[in-house]
Amino acid sequence: MDARSLVCIPEVVNCYQAHTYIELAMVTPIIILFLLIMPLCIAHIIARSKGGVVDVKKFACWGLGLAYLFFFIGHIVKAQGMVEMLPPWVPYRLALVYLTGLLELIVGIALFIPKFQVLAAKVAIAMFVAFFPANVYAAINSIGLGGHQWGPIYLLIRGPLQLILISWAYFLCIRGLSIRTLALN
User: Fold this and answer.
1) Do 39 and 59 touch, CB atoms closer than 8 A?
2) Is the whole model's pTM more than 0.90, yes or no?
3) Which of 14, 27, 68, 103 sits a CA distance of 20 to 30 A from 77?
4) How far from 81 is each of 21, 76, 93, 136, CA to CA, in Å?
5) What separation in angstroms does the CA of 149 have from each of 19, 25, 105, 107?
6) Separation CA 125–CA 175 (nearest Å)
7) Percent of the chain scoring above 90 in pLDDT
């Protein structure tokens, strides 16, 4: 008897696969958070070594832009899984997945262009709010991608992630922490 069998519930046929599945479901939120904070962290390290300042708004927008490009890739590469996240009564589900992926691509690119960053961040917030019901539907019905198969408990991860993304977009990309730059002394 190995250690994995001691912690498994009898209903789970293959505990190792279930454990691996749980680990894989957590990868996506971790990737999203990594992409979100990476540009700001790198800018902070560079500014710190040179004694400069970080344009928080700029690098926060870049992080959100990277996250949106990741979302776009997911809509293209995992389109069928995204389709499953929509209720069957939604018409043209595959076309809608590709259309929202295209919108994510546009928002992602716009977040790298200073002239469009604030507008893109506002659209990003609207998309986070508008798309969240699909995440709720998928979690309640244990379908789709990522941790949605966990069922409603996944919303304990997805809900806070949505709040982090919305807060990041609003406080760092739109409001810019009420200041344009942050001195690093």
Assistant:
1) yes
2) no
3) 14
4) 16, 10, 11, 15
5) 13, 9, 26, 28
6) 13
7) 57
